[in-house]
UniProtKB/TrEMBL annotation, chain A:
Pfam families, A to Z: BPD_transp_1
Cellular compartments annotated: Cell membrane
Matches recorded under CDD domains: TM_PBP2
The protein's name in its UniProt record: ABC transporter permease
Entry's family note: Belongs to the binding-protein-dependent transport system permease family.
Record keywords, A-Z: Cell membrane, Membrane, Transmembrane, Transmembrane helix, Transport
InterPro entries in UniProt: MetI-like, MetI-like_sf, UgpAE/MalFG_permease
Membrane topology per record: Multi-pass membrane protein
From TrEMBL, chain B:
Location within or outside the cell: Cell membrane
Membrane topology: Multi-pass membrane protein
Coiled coil: none
Residue ranges constituting the ABC transmembrane type-1 domain according to the UniProt record: 97-287
The name this protein goes by in its record: Sugar ABC transporter permease
Transmembrane segments: 34-56, 101-121, 133-153, 159-184, 213-234, 268-287
Chief location category: membrane
Keyword annotations: Cell membrane, Membrane, Transmembrane, Transmembrane helix, Transport
Amino acid sequence: MKLRQSVDAAPGRSPRQAIPFLLPALVVLAALVLYPLVFSLIRSFFDAGGDEFVGLRNYVDTFTDPRTLTAFRNNVIWVVVAPAAVTGIGLVLAVLTERIRWATAFRLVLFMPMAISLFASGIIFRLVYEEAPEQGVVNAALVGVHDLFSPSSQYPGARPRDGYTRTEEGYVATAPSRAGDTVMVPLTGFSPQEVPARALPASQPATGNGELRGLVWLDVSVGGNAGKVDPIERGLPGIGLEAVRDGKVVARTTTGDDGRFTFPDLASDEVVVRLPASNFALPFRGLTWLGPSLITPVIISSWIWIMTGFAITFIAAGLSAIPRDALEAARVDGATEWQVFRRVTIPLLSPVLLVVFVTLVINVLKIFELVFVIAPGSVQSEANVLALQMWQVSFGTGGDQGAGSALAVILFLLVAPAMLFNIRRFRRERS
Amino acid sequence: MTLVAEEVRIEVPVSGAPKRGVVSRLVSRLGNGFVQLVLALVALFWLVPVFGLLIASLRDESANTASGWWTVFTKPSELTLDNYADLVANQAVWQSFLNTFYIAVPATVLVVVMAALASYALSWIEFPGRETLTVVVVGLLVMPIQVALIPVAKLFGAFGLFGTITGVVLFHVAFGLPFAIFLLRNFFTGIPRDLIEAARMDGATEWVIFKRVVLPVAKPAIASLTIFQFLWVWNDMLVALVFADQDSAPITVALRAQLRQFGTNIDLLATGAFLSMVVPLAVFLVFQKYFVQGVLAGSTK
């Protein structure tokens, strides 16, 4: 080589000189990318062990396997929703950041998720969406907002002892009562420690003339008599009661600190005492984000968090390339900001938006780690996507490399249009 | 007519300008305030999840199970570095953290060197099939790595590379090359022809031109590529999941076993995830310009 170079009159014109420069990269690419592509294609026509030629059976199996079909469905949801959402959000935010002084800082913050691993992002969002409101911030916020508008009940899970039937509306006394009676409501199923501090010792109310009176107390059976008011037992304050006649509520009242209640103005007809269910409703605990029905939207939301910064930065670069004159001319002609955005900015930006969109579609088709990390094992089949299914079939629980190769080829075919898009764009840019 | 009309047209802005100016300025001021508010909220949405993870990594297991990280504002005394001490003391996790370096550094160096060499040939040495080769490289940009997992696993098995750091590195090099070549070739072809030709006239060999002329000029592109490739490999999970064994696993794979009991392992997972994020975040903050350029160019991967 050296000899040749020294005599060569026009260095750079000799094809041979390219060899040492190209060789290392070409060997690696040929051995670990191109040869595997061909191998996978052939391998996909053989059975799990690779011994028997099975034709298209792996492909037929793939398209009839319910797990793979779920993965397909999810991939379609991903492709339809996620790239468009990120491109749209990225466009809006990129335009908005042009109007603030701290645009660089803003883009830096939104770009940060691109630097960290999808594994770490997955952990971050697993924590964000954790179901227990004591751990997941989303459910904690939901519970906070929910309790603001409909406060949780004071006595969740408590219930009357005998003599009451459970209905939609609440616990209804089996025996009717009338003015002048005393109604005793012993409650159980509630921890004495949870009773509000203002509760006073329970005591039997005196019979009132013309009034329906009663007592609601926490009837602890340990160290006391079931159904009887014992000295250690306390009344339960703040419990709502209703007097019902012919299915209609005729009076409402609430217990005092000692658990006593009074319906003052009842006519002499019989009524039935009812304890509305709202007294005992279990507290709102938020949504099961990581359950089967919400898992894909949840993972998509975390992907949006990761990719929006990329879209903004890419689109902002495109925006800065738009000639200011075009925008100014439209504004001078009296166009509103919206019209400028819709009629001038977007058309001029559409090539950039297309590149961003295609890039995001490719990224979405290969989604793996996020699903792997965010979806708990029990719902991974609901959240499944092709890239994950390929790994599971070939290396995870499946161990079927024939079917795995078929999935790899399918994945390749799905990405192929993007490949052609890139090549065409590359050719156009060169000419 | 025309004269009058023109006079009017000139008159209108002069008399109307201050009025419209005040109103529109007020509107845009209010609008701007609103935009600032919205963007501040968006930025908050981006920061809170990471902040939550950081705080969770600084609270012990019982604190994390009992209450959310946001309670730290009322109980700052719960903050502790114990989780990090435990993690560093954990031989397997610490080894995996080191493995991540052992994988990412060679995978980055090899890709940069190989890609720089190949890009030089593709840009400045004429040879038959150059055009085709370039197009092939562009086509390989979006190649899903799933296509190569099974065949390369077999290949590595035959050469005794399966389950070794070398195997993981080689796979990363192969799938890092197309983008690396694409990026550097784009930059190299932008170097003025005169520069190269002048060196050739002086009798410089291709190797000398590459080393003395092209590489110094291409420093920014090489910096972008180095950072992008390093973070790409550092953040990988899938490749290592397939090709690494227990002793060669990077941190993402090592922590994966703890995912089963997420609720009770928050302290460990949050700490591990944060440990794995420290390096990328540092690289990102220090070299953000190069990194952003690299990602924008390499987004097609």
